[in-house]
Amino acid sequence: MSDRYGKLSVYGPDDLITDLEKGLWKELYTPNLVIDPFRRNLQKQYVDVMISLMNPAQPVLPAGLPRGIIILFGADIKNSDIPSIARGHLTVLRNRMLTTAGSTGDKISKYHLLDMAERIGQALSPK
User: Fold this and answer.
1) How many angstroms separate the Cα of 85 from the Cα of each of 21, 79, 112, 127?
2) CB-based burial of residue 7 (10 Å sphere; 0-12 exposed, 13-18 middle, 19+ buried)?
3) Cα-Cα-Cα-Cα dihedral sign, residues 95, 99, 105, 111
């Protein structure tokens, strides 16, 4: 049965983030692997972006423009599925980091994973 434009053919945001994480966080699936400084930096940037998607700031419109022009200045994603998807992925990623941190190839990689898990934890449960 053909599903030309139905759910089977759609590459959604959850699929995109899942595929992105597989590449960015391959060390979480390969024991004793050392995370080099460049990948650690990339992973930190990824976590920062995901946290910002989870807690999006309201877009600021220049004075006098109608709200319909918002698409030119950035979408209002607060009431979309994007924050929920980001929260879900960060929760799973944090759990994986905590599970994997003890089996990394070096101390810096372990510290990196524990630090990232802590940052995510603080974003998930702010005080």
Assistant:
1) 13, 12, 24, 22
2) exposed
3) positive
Separation between Cα atoms, residue 78 and residue 37, nearest integer Å:
33
Helix, strand, coil shares of the chain, percent, nearest 5, are 65, 0, 35
- Please tell me the pTM assigned to this model: 0.79
- pLDDT tens, position by position, 30-66: 878 899 999 999 999 999 999 999 887 666 656 665 5
Q: What is the pLDDT of residues 98-127, one digit of tens each?
A: 999 988 889 999 999 999 999 999 999 987
Contact 22, 92 (CB under 8 A): no
Using alpha carbons, select from 67, 60, 127, 54 the residue that is nearest to residue 94.
54
Distance (Å, rounded) from C-alpha 111 to C-alpha 72?
41
d(CA 77, CA 55): 9
